């Protein structure tokens, strides 16, 4: 299972890359807006920092013609860019065209099995079901992950499930159980995933016991 960081904050990404855990990054217009400054330069810096890891960058245009041209321009920014396009009917035609051109696509704002199936048929690299936003409207987001997993396995599609909008550690846990190919995780949730109180207290205990020996060098 791949772990992506759900942020455009370069220092946070740099810090997590040092752990060796991070396979990629997802951004959205909200993330880029939060960082401010020149978004094109930031995207280039993010892609350079990730090396070969996928970096999802979302389109900001609206009409299919402009989205198509913008998607090509975003894809040209770096070899590891994945263009994020909302799962909107108006864009289906251009999504297919971009896939045929060899551009990696991450379909965002996916909320149903039906939408997922349509995008798999178009041959996109990732679909991003938004777990948290479904839970927000009292729909079980995790059950949609299970439905998508079964559908993709049943029909042998190549599209990967990128579990997004994960709001807490339980969401991450459930995304793993549902067999998501990727989970994109905010730094605060990843911090909880890599921290265990029993590991910390166990280390404190071992250190205290070892110190009783008073040995200065070992071995
Ligand atoms: C990532 O691809 C999504 O844009 C992000 O996970 C959305 O999260 P949110 O629903 O908490 O804004």
Helix content: 40-55%
Q: What is CATH's topology name?
A: TIM Barrel
How many strands, what sense, and barrel or not for the largest sheet? Answer: 8 strands, parallel, barrel
- In the CATH scheme, the class would be Alpha Beta
Task: Count all strands and give the number.
Answer: 8
The hetero molecules present are: erythose-4-phosphate
Order of helices and strands: EHEHHEHEHEHEHHEHEHH
Descriptive report:
- This protein has 219 residues and is of the alpha/beta class.
- The protein has one domain: Aldolase class I (TIM Barrel, Alpha-Beta Barrel), CATH 3.20.20.
- 51% of the residues lie in helices and 17% in strands.
- It has 11 helices and 8 strands.
- It has helices at 10-17, 29-35, 39-50, 64-75, 92-100, 113-122, 131-136, 141-155, 169-177, 187-193, 197-213, and strands at 2-6, 24-26, 54-58, 81-86, 105-110, 126-129, 160-163, 182-185.
- It has an 8-stranded parallel beta barrel with strand order 1-2-3-4-5-6-7-8, surrounded by 7 helices.
- Strand 1, helix 1 and strand 2 (24-26) form a beta-alpha-beta unit.
- The longest helix is centred in the last third of the chain and has 17 residues, at 197-213.
- The mean pLDDT is 98.
- The site of erythose-4-phosphate (E4P) has 12 residues, from helix 7.
Give a brief description.
The chain has eleven helices and eight strands. With 219 residues, it is of the alpha/beta class.
Which features would summarize this protein structure in a list?
219 residues, alpha/beta, TIM Barrel, 8-stranded parallel barrel, 8 strands, 51% helix, 17% strand, binds erythose-4-phosphate
């Amino acid at each position: 299972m791949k772990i992506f960081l759900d942020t455009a904050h370069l220092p946070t990404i740099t810090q997590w890359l040092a752990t060796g855990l991070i396979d990629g990054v997802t951004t959205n217009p909200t993330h880029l807006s939060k960082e401010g400054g020149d978004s094109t330069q930031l995207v280039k810096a993010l892609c350079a920092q990730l090396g070969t890891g996928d970096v999802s960058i979302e389109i900001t245009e609206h009409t299919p013609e402009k989205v198509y041209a913008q998607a090509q321009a975003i894809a040209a920014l770096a070899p590891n860019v994945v263009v994020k396009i909302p799962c909107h009917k108006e864009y289906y035609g251009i999504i297919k065209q971009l896939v045929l051109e060899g551009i990696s696509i991450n379909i965002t704002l996916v909320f149903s099995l039906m939408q997922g199936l349509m995008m798999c048929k178009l041959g996109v690299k990732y679909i991003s079901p938004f777990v948290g936003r479904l839970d927000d409207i009292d729909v079980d987001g995790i059950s949609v992950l299970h439905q998508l997993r079964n559908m993709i396995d049943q029909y042998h599609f190549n599209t990967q499930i990128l579990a997004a909008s994960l709001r807490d550690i339980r969401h991450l846990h459930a995304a793993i159980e549902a067999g998501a190919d990727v989970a994109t995780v905010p730094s605060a949730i990843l911090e909880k995933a890599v921290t265990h109180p029993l590991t910390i207290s166990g280390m404190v205990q071992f250190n205290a016991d070892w110190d009783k020996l008073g040995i200065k060098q070992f071995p």
